[in-house]
Design brief:
- The protein is mainly α and 120 residues long.
- It has one domain (30-119).
- It contains 5 helices and no strands.
- The chain has helices spanning 3-17, 35-55, 59-76, 81-92, 95-119.
- The N and C termini lie far apart (73 Å).
Length: 120
């Protein structure tokens, strides 16, 4: 091996080992939307996103309509987009926590779908 390799490898290892920090240890924002409420908001947003995407293939239409509709969802839950964004950022930093929220939403949708099929 060359002399440069002997210097470069330890330098790279030292750099990567210095980048050890956990995002999940960050303190939650003061106005964090609690997990159960956040799940309801996110579920409503997901339904609206899905409906718009299914109705319109044009991405421009989606981006024009979605903010206005999202605002009505935020009004329903008495939050604003800034609070939602901060809460989403917080939950997204702990991928396991966010994944559990999405899985819970998916489970609810499957149950609701099964109930609707039983009613028909």
């Amino acid at each position: 091996m060359e002399f440069r390799t002997y210097i470069l490898i330890p330098l790279i290892l030292a750099t990567f080992s210095a980048c050890d920090y956990e995002l999940s240890n960050e303190a939650p924002p003061e106005d964090l939307i609690q997990k159960d409420s956040f799940k309801m908001v996110l579920k409503d947003i997901m339904f609206v996103e899905s409906a718009i995407k299914n109705e319109f293939n044009n991405v421009n239409v989606f981006y024009k309509r979605m903010p206005r509709i999202a605002d009505s969802i935020f009004d329903k839950y008495e939050i604003d987009s800034s609070r939602y964004r901060k809460s989403m950022d917080y939950y997204a930093k702990d991928q396991d926590k966010l994944l559990k929220i999405y899985e819970s939403i998916q489970d609810e949708i499957v149950l609701e779908s099964a109930q609707h099929k039983d009613e028909d």
